[in-house]
């Protein structure tokens, strides 16, 4: 995950279990750069899930963010007329060029508190998964969908 302000919430320093198959108790998930067993994930109820407002938006602008501590882009994402344009800092420079991001649909948490990153206010949490080396791979729909669509 790329947090508002470009802090990776998952994917830093991933560890590998080796080539053998994992049993269910060894399956891992990544949180804040650590790999942890899935069975340690706290259970939540559906009402807890509904508190997280994950929406679809289209990146309309992407610029380098040289003031960030780690390489990042400043994104402007269009979530449609209800939510509008929101800004996000994202550490996604390893796999993406700024100009290629424009027009790409991404998922983001739109109801987290804003986060000041240097001179930039990050308003949404752009979502992704870590690749094998811990770099962020953005998530989005496999087919075009309307901006502001909510994940369910």
Structural notes for this entry:
With 152 residues, the chain is mostly beta strands. The chain has a domain at 54-138: Beta Barrel (OB fold (Dihydrolipoamide Acetyltransferase, E2P)), CATH 2.40.50.140. Helices cover 9% and strands 33% of the residues. It has helices at residues 46-51, 80-83, 98-101, and strands spanning 28-31, 34-37, 54-64, 73-78, 85-90, 105-109, 115-117, 120-122, 125-126, 128-130, 136-138. The protein has a five-stranded antiparallel sheet with strand order 5-4-3-6-9. Strands 1-2 form a two-stranded antiparallel ribbon. It has a two-stranded antiparallel sheet with strand order 7-8. Strand 10 (128-130) and strand 11 form a beta hairpin. The longest helix is centred in the first third of the chain and has 6 residues, at 46-51. Mean pLDDT is 82; it is low at 1-26.
């Amino acid at each position: 995950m790329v947090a508002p302000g470009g802090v990776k919430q998952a994917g830093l320093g991933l560890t590998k279990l080796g080539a053998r198959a994992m049993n269910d108790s060894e399956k891992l998930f990544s949180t804040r750069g650590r790999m942890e067993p899935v069975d340690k994930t706290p259970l939540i109820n559906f009402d807890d899930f509904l508190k997280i407002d994950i929406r679809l938006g289209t990146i309309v602008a992407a610029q380098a963010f040289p003031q960030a501590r780690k390489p990042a882009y400043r994104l402007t994402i269009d979530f449609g007329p209800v939510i509008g344009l929101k800004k996000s800092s994202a550490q996604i420079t390893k796999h993406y060029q700024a100009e290629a991001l424009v027009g790409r649909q991404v998922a983001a948490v739109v109801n987290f508190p804003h986060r000041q990153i240097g001179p930039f206010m990050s308003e949404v949490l752009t979502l992704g998964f870590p690749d094998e080396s811990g770099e962020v791979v953005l998530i989005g729909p496999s087919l075009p969908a309307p901006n502001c669509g909510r994940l369910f």
